[in-house]
Each structure stands twice: as structure tokens, then as C-alpha cells.
Amino acid sequence: MSDTSSRLRIVWIYPDLLSTYGDRGNVLILRRRAELRGIATEIVHVHSSDAVPVEGDIYLLGGGEDRPQILAAERLRADGGLKRAAERGAAVLAICAGYQIIGESYGDDADNPLPGVGILDVRSGRGETRAVGEIVADVDPNLGVGRITGFENHQGRTAIGPNAVPLSRTVRGIGNDGQTEGAYQGQVLGTYLHGPALPRNPELADLLLRWRVGAIPPLPPSWGERLHEERLAAAL
Ligand code: GLN
């Protein structure tokens, strides 16, 4: 955890620009699953007019429409805090628009390439079609997460560079390119899964916690696991 606090600091980046699909649910589930393990948490909401604190533990970025996404990327690049936090070893979960803007570059609404924050080696542009619907994917076995489900709604397509690894292989849906879904590099993870992603995939929440606090005990199955199973059954 951060040097300055005994609490796990969960930083929600720009809820005023990047929060289209119930992204707050990701914050709530992360806090809940931490506290069930006896880990105290602190939630920090960072609006787009605020400076991004560098000493957070887990940073969350949600989805957004094309124009708010551009504004968010410009402000994050000018601020520099998210990049410094990632360089210090913070964990990052970035969803859809958030995923695109933490990469090296992404396409604006006319597919002009714009610079991203540059903490994940991916490049995004616009596809011919919009990817909309349920998505199911099998996560890289190295991460111990299994099969994930979500809802995707994006025009972007994403190519993964040599320093990043695909998060998962798609079973249903488009994700990055119809073959893979999401990417990670160290403790920085991006995905097209909305839903929101963490309530639908408790194992993904636990991965972020493990990245920051180390081994954590399993929890007895609860409604989160039931939701996961229900969504998987509905999508396949
Ligand atoms: N504007 C981006 C796209 O269409 C991201 C959309 C989103 O976050 N749902 O690809």
C-alpha cells in the first residue's frame, strides 16, 4: 500500500467525464472486497479540474463519449499524476475510453490519432463498425482470473505493442480486434468490458487487490459470483 497511509487508496479518475456505464460500481466492489479482507480503504474522487494524486494504490478510469474522452486525455497528459503513479507501481484499471487514453495513441471522432497518457503499450483507432453487445473472454492464465464477461459499446479497435500483453482471448464479442480483449503491462490493465466490469467479475477485482497488497484469502461465493455465472450463461 502507499507509503503515506495504512489505507488502500482507491482513486477514481474523472467521474465527471469518464463514467458512462455504472463505472462507480467498480469503485464500490473494490472497496467491498478489500474491506471483507480487513483492508481499510479510502476512496478519492478526482474531478477533471483537480490534480491527480500520485500516492494512490489503485486508479480507476471509466468509459466515455468521444469528446469527453479527448478532454480527459488532454487533462491527464497535462497533469502528469497518473503517469507518475503508474511509474511508482500503482495498479490501474481503465475501461473502454479510459483504456484507449492510457495507451500511446487513440483516434478522435474523425479517427485522427491523438496522443495518450502512454502507460500501456497499445494504439487505438476507429473500426468500420461499432462493437456493441455482450462479450466473453478467457483471461491470460498467468493472471488466475478465468473467464470474464461484460458489455462492450465502442467504435475503437486496439493494437497491442511489444511491451503489453493481451488480457484475454475473446470467446464472444469484438474487444480489441475480434481475437483478443484488453491488455496489461505490469500492474496497468485496460479492457473494453463495461457492465461494470468488477461487479460482474469479482476475480478481476481480486487481481487488482493482489497486485497492491499481495496474497488475499478467498471469499465465500456471494451474489457477485452468482451474477458472474448468470451473465456467462446468458451470453453463451
Ligand atoms: N469513444 C470510444 C469508442 O467509441 C470509447 C467508448 C466507450 O467508452 N464506451 O471507441
Blueprint of the fold:
Blueprint lengths: L7 E6 L10 H12 L5 E6 L11 E4 L4 H14 L1 H7 L3 E5 L1 H6 L2 E3 L5 E3 L6 E18 L7 E14 L4 E8 L7 E6 L2 E4 L5 H4 L1 H12 L9 H13 L1
Parallel strand pairs: 1-2, 1-3, 3-4, 4-11
Antiparallel strand pairs: 5-6, 7-8, 7-9, 9-10, 10-11
Helix pairs in contact: 1-6
Q: Which distinct ligands sit in these coordinates?
A: glutamine
Largest sheet: 9 strands, mixed
- Any idea what the CATH superfamily is called? Class I glutamine amidotransferase (GATase) domain
CATH architecture: 3-Layer(aba) Sandwich
* Share of β-strand residues: 25-35%
Enumerate the strands of the largest sheet in spatial order, edge to edge or round the barrel. 2-1-3-4-11-10-9-7-8
Number of helices: 7
State the assembly state of the protein chains: single chain
- SSE topology string: EHEEHHEHEEEEEEEHHH
For the secondary structure, the number of strands is 11
CATH first level: Alpha Beta
Instruction: Give me the Rg, rounded.
Output: 16 Å
Ranges where pLDDT stays below 50 over 5 or more residues in a row are: none
- Indicate how many domains the architecture comprises: 1
Helix amount, in percent?
25-40%
Q: Structural class given helices, strands, pairing?
A: alpha/beta
Kindly identify the CATH topology.
Rossmann fold
